[in-house]
Each structure stands twice: as structure tokens, then as C-alpha cells.
Amino acid sequence: MSDPATAAPFRLAISASRGPEIEGRVLSGRVAAGDRLVAATSGRTAGVTSLRNGAGEPLDAAQVGDHVVLGLDDAWSLTPGDLVAGADRRPAVADQVAADIDWRGEGPLIPGRNLSFTVGAQTATGSVTEIRHRIDPRSGQALAGKIVGTGETARVNLTFARALAFDPFTENEATGALTIRALSGDAILGTGRIAFGLRRATNIHWQAVDIDRAARAEIKGQVPVCLWFTGLSGAGKSAIANALERALFSVGRHTYLLDGDNVRHGLNRDLGFTEADRVENIRRVAETARLMLDAGLIVLASFISPFRADRAMARALMGEGEFVEIFVDTPLAVAEARDPKGLYRRARAGEIRNFTGLDSPYEPPLSPEIRLATGGSTPEALAEEVLAYLASRGTLR
Ligand SMILES: Nc1ncnc2c1ncn2[C@@H]1O[C@H](COP(=O)(O)OS(=O)(=O)O)[C@@H](OP(=O)(O)O)[C@H]1O
Ligand SMILES: Nc1ncnc2c1ncn2[C@@H]1O[C@H](COP(=O)(O)OP(=O)(O)O)[C@@H](O)[C@H]1O
User: Fold this and answer.
1) How many angstroms separate the alpha carbon of residue 57 from the centre of ligand 2?
2) Active-site residues (predicted)?
3) Which CATH number fits domain 4-86: 2.60.200.20, 3.30.428.10, 2.60.40.10, 2.40.30.10?
4) By the 8 A CB rule, do 315 and 326 touch?
């Protein structure tokens, strides 16, 4: 029959670590050469190659209460207090837990106040985020009331400044017990027993909750997409993009409008309208739009972007289906007649060089996702056409 103390999962509280050698106290279970271990909060694993006791003498195995020096087949970087465990029975890792607290502080337990929490040999700043209910010390039943005075016990939610490794107290007292102190001073304000982790992060490696582009999009509840408006100066790009952004915003979408005039006052203020400068203008804007897609946004880009090659470059930077080319198809005569900034007039007068459509080319898209024939339609109606396209391909759920 196995001894219950050593049948418990292996847990080691680290006191020192030197490359592939780690040293600490066995909190529960047993370890022998050949076992696979995991550094609980990083999730890195390694095999045990040798065991020694505190005096440097070789050991066959070490068990609960022993001080042990383990040689590993990989070098870890650990700090004192970290928890190492058997890789086959890993502890939970979470920065939020539910726990039962026996409060011994002088005044009542105050949610939100920063305190120091010790779990196993790990210490972290944290606080009580919620008092769930008080607990009757005799019956263990829940009691109504959210005020916890000295000598009382309560089920609370805790949050720690970093993820800690633990086991539920009912499964492992050594790694499920916690001690509460003030941030300064050693006086113990309370003790407690962790019931369970509160985050999905529990029981999985910490790396598994790294924030990626899918997570950023998911929290916004949308499919990121870049809506790229191209057309002559005065074609109506900005007016349609603005109407579209208003419509998207009003249904709770997270958007960002990149507009030629605005970007040229900041990020691209060093650029003019020679062909080389326009190429660089579009390159920087496309890279910016790509970062914004990564952030989970719906990006509206409104640039003349007169050259096919540059629009193709922008498309290639983004994922399949993420670049939607929208040709704002307004004839030169109409755009020139509008001339809201008087630029065509000045260009015709020779005051502005390299003006698109006059002495600088505009290459219309050959197969844009959307072509907006602007004659006779308002910017709002044209924005509706784009919304209908996005809805039809499932981008707007
Ligand atoms: N030479 C010349 N040619 C075209 N446009 C000119 C020029 N000089 C200044 N402007 C103003 O700059 C705006 C176009 O900037 P973009 O960044 O969209 O141009 S580009 O994509 O790099 O071609 C454009 O704004 P929109 O009218 O909104 O398109 C003009 O106001
Ligand atoms: N569909 C439209 N019908 C009529 N006028 C429009 C339309 N779209 C834009 N305009 C007007 O044309 C001018 C140029 O529009 P703007 O959106 O600034 O074009 P761009 O951004 O392509 O240079 C503005 O005065 C705007 O009010």
C-alpha cells in the first residue's frame, strides 16, 4: 500500500536555481531520477537526471519534507518560491481564485485593499475583489452578509498581481493553503484555503493565454477587415468612408479611419506627390492598416492610391479576404467640377505640379471587390452598398 503523503502529486518549493540544477523543499509527493517535471507558471518541462540531499550526498528518491538538489536535462530560470511539479499531475495556475478566509485583521476585511498573499512558497500582492458570503464556523453553512469582522470566516474572490500555482486545498493542503499579511510588516492578518481558480487559465500553461490577433478580434466581437477606398481627388472617398464609419460605429463596431489628408499632416508629413513619395505614402499606410487589423479593428483607408502596383502591395500585406478594394468611380470632369479645395483650378493654372488626373496618372482598379458609381447617389447610400457587400460575405455578423 502506498503512503498517502507520497501518493500525493509531487510539489517542490524552489529555494535556489542554478542553470540545470534546482534546489528546494518537497511539499508533497515523491521524486526520483527519470521523472518528468514542470515549472508550474512557465509550463516548461524537463527530466530529472540526479538527486542529492542538502549535504551533497546522492539520493535514489526524495519525499515530502526533504530538502533536495535536483539535476535536470534542461536549464530553467526560476526564482525562489516558484513551484515545480510532476509533469503528469500539474497544479492549477491562475491570477484569480475563490478561497475561504479566516480573517484576523484588527478591523473588518476591506475589498480592494492591497495585501500580501503567500501560497505554498510563492508571494504576490493581491486583494479581495468580492466577498461572496460569510461562513458559519460550526455548521460550515453560508451566512448572509458581506461584512467580515475579526474572527469571522468568508468565501471570497481574490485577485493576484501575477498568476500563482496552486492545488485546491481539499486536494493538497501544502499547496492550497494561503496566508495573508499587510504589505509592510509580518503580522498575519488571515489564513485561507483555495477552493478553485476563477479563470479559464486554470490548468493550462500560462503561455496558452498569450493575447493574439484572434483574441483581440474576438473580444471586440468582429471580423477585422481593411476597406480601401481609391479614386481621384474629389471623387467622394472621404465622404463615403465617413458615412460608412458612422454606420459601423452606430452598430457597435470598433473602427479607425485613415485618411490621406490627415495622415499627411503627421506620420507622412515628410512626403509630397512625386511618384516615389506616393509609393512610400501607401507603403506606410498599408503597414499601419495591417497593425490595426492585428489589433482587431475594422480599418477604413481613404487614399487616392493611384498606382495598381501599390494597391497590390497593400493587398499582399494582409490576409486572404482582409483587403477590400473599393473603387470610388467618379469621372474626372465631375471631380473637377466639385473642386471643393480649389486644387484642380490651381493645378490647371500651373500652381500645383503632379496633380492626379492632370499631369500625374490614375490607374483605375481592374477587378475591385466593390465599384461605387457615384453619379446621383449620396455618400450614405453608397456606404449602404459597402455594408450590403460585407453582410453578404459574412464579415458583419
Ligand atoms: N498633386 C496632388 N495630387 C493629388 N492630390 C493632392 C496633390 N496635392 C495635394 N493633394 C491633396 O492630397 C490629397 C491626396 O493625398 P493621398 O495621400 O490620398 O494621395 S496618394 O494616395 O499618395 O496619391 C488629396 O486629397 P483628396 O482630395 O481627399 O483625395 C488632395 O487634397
Ligand atoms: N456622392 C456624392 N454626391 C455628391 N457630392 C459628393 C458625393 N461624395 C462627395 N461629394 C462632395 O464632393 C466633394 C469631395 O468629396 P471628398 O469625400 O472630399 O472626396 P475625396 O476624399 O475623394 O477627395 C465634397 O465637397 C463632397 O461633399
Assistant:
1) 84
2) 305
3) 2.40.30.10
4) no
How many angstroms does the Cα of residue 334 sit away from the middle of ligand 2?
A: 10
The secondary element (H helix, E strand) that includes residue 256 is strand 255-259
- CATH code 1.10.730.10 for 92-207: no
What value of ipTM does the predicted structure carry? 0.98
Name the architecture of domain 215-392.
3-Layer(aba) Sandwich (3.40)
**Ligand 1 neighbours by CB, cut-off 6 Å:** 233-234, 238, 260-261, 264, 273, 278, 281-282, 303-306, 341, 343, 352, 354-356
196 vs 157: CA distance, rounded Å: 10
* Predicted TM-score (pTM) above 0.95: no
Give the pLDDT band of residue 6 (cuts 50, 70, 90): low
Residue owning the nearest CA to atom 6 of ligand 1: 355
**The residue to which cell 481627388 is assigned:** 233
CA distance 97 to 93: 10
Annotated active-site residue 305? The verdict is: yes
